[in-house]
Amino acid sequence: MAPLIPQGLINPELNLFFALLIGIGFGYVLEQAGFSSAKKLAGVFYGYDFVVLRVFFTAGITAMTGLLFFGYLGWIDMDLVFVNPTFLYSAITGGVIMGFGFVLGGYCPGTSIVAAVTGKKDAMVFLAGMLAGIFLFGHFYHDFEPLYTGHFLGNIFVYDSLGMSRAWFALLLVIVALLAFIITQMIEDKVNKTASDKIKERPSYKMPSMLLLTAMVVFLFLPGERSSNIRERNPGELIEKIDAGKPYVSSHRVILEIKNGRDELVLIDTRQQAEYERFTLPGAVHIPPHDILQRRWGPLFRKDLRPKIFFSNGSSNAMMAYLTAARAGYDNVFIMDGGLNKLFQELFTDTAIPDTTAYNLQDRSNARFLYEARQFFLEGGVAAKEKEERPRIKAPEESEIIPVIGGC
C-alpha cells in the first residue's frame, strides 16, 4: 500500500479497510484478465500462452519505474518502504513447491482464490490443499524453523547481490523484459500456429518500449541524489539554529567520548583524503562535504540514531557538511566547536598542572579534566583504545546482515 500511513496520508485505523478495497480491485482485475482459468495460467509451461509471464514483467517494470522516479523526485520516501527479508533456504524450497503446485494445479495462491470465488471446483480443491499446508506448517513450525529461517541474507536488493548499481540493474531488467516479450510472443505464435494476417493486425508496442528504455537511460545519468527532496529543511530554520549555537558540540564531549571509548558518537572527518590518512580522531569515518548525499551514506544518517559530529581543522569544512546534511533533512548532526585546532590547543598548549585551589569549581573541574585527558593521549591510551575497542568505521560496501525471525 506504499508508505501512506507513516506519511500521515491514511489513518492507521483505516489500514485494513483500504487493504480490503485494494484486494477486491486486484481480484476483479485478475478475473477480467482471465487469470481464474487454470488452462490459461498453466499455458506458460507448455508454450501456448505466455500472458502470465508478460503480466508479471509489466507489473514489475511499472512498479520499478514509478518507485525510481518518485523516490528521486522526493514524492515517496524509500526508507519507509518495507523490503522483505531474504532467507535463502526457505526461498528456494518455497519456490520449488510453488512451481510444482503451479504446474500440477494450474493456480498460484492469489488466482486460486479468484477462481474459487467464481465457482471453479478445481480451484476449491487447490485452495483446500493450500489451507491444509498452512495448517501443517503452523502446527510443526518448530520443526520447520531451521529451514524457514536458514541462511538469512538481510533485507537485500537484487542489484546489491549482483554488485551493480540500481540504475544499471533497472536498465538491464527493462531490456530483459522487452526481449522476453518478443521471444515469448514468437514461441506462442509458433505453438499456436497463428496466421500471419492476425500477427500483422496486432498493435505495435515500439513507442512505449522506446519511451521506457529512454526513461531508464535518463535515470542512469541522473545525479546520485537530488539537491532537494521531501525531507528538505527550510534555510531560515537552519540559520536560526546556527545563530542559537545549537549545531555545536564542545570538544570536551568529543575528548570524553574518545577517552572512555563508549562509541556513543559517530565522528565524521570532513577534511581532504590525504589529511585523513595522515591523522584523524579514533573511530572517525571520512566523508567530505560533497559526498554527504551519496546513497551509500544514507543508512548511516537515516538509520543510525547516534549523534553525528562533523569536524575539520577549523570549522569551514565541517560547517559545509553540516549544512548539506541538515538541509537534506538528516537529524542528529552536529559540528565539533573549533575543530581539531581548538581540541589540540586545549589538550597540548596549556600543560600546566591544574590549580586545585581555584575558587570557581567549574574552572577547577575543566582544568582537571583536560589534564587527565592530556595524560591519556600522551601516554598512548588513545592508540590502544583505537586498536582494541574502537575500530574505524568503514565506508559501506556490502549490505549489513541483521539476524531476525520471520519469513520471506
Task: Describe this protein with a few key phrases.
408 residues, mainly alpha, Oxidized Rhodanese, domain 1, 2 domains, five-stranded parallel β-sheet, two-stranded antiparallel sheet, 7 strands, 5% strand, disordered C terminus
Report the sheet-strand fraction: 5-15%
SSE pattern, N- to C-terminal: HHHEHHHHEHHHHHEHEHEHEHEHHH
Which geometry do the CA atoms define? elongated
How would a crystallographer describe the biggest sheet?
5 strands, parallel
Total count of strands: 7
Going by helix content, strand content and strand pairing, the class is mainly alpha
Task: State the assembly state of the protein chains.
Answer: single chain
Number of domains: 2
Q: What's the N-to-C terminus distance?
A: 18 Å
Please state how the strands of the largest beta sheet are arranged side by side.
3-7-6-4-5
What is the number of helical segments per DSSP (H or I, 4+ residues)? 19
| Share of helical residues | 55-70%
Radius of gyration, in Å, reads 29 Å
The unreliable regions are: 381-391, 398-408
Overall pLDDT score: 81
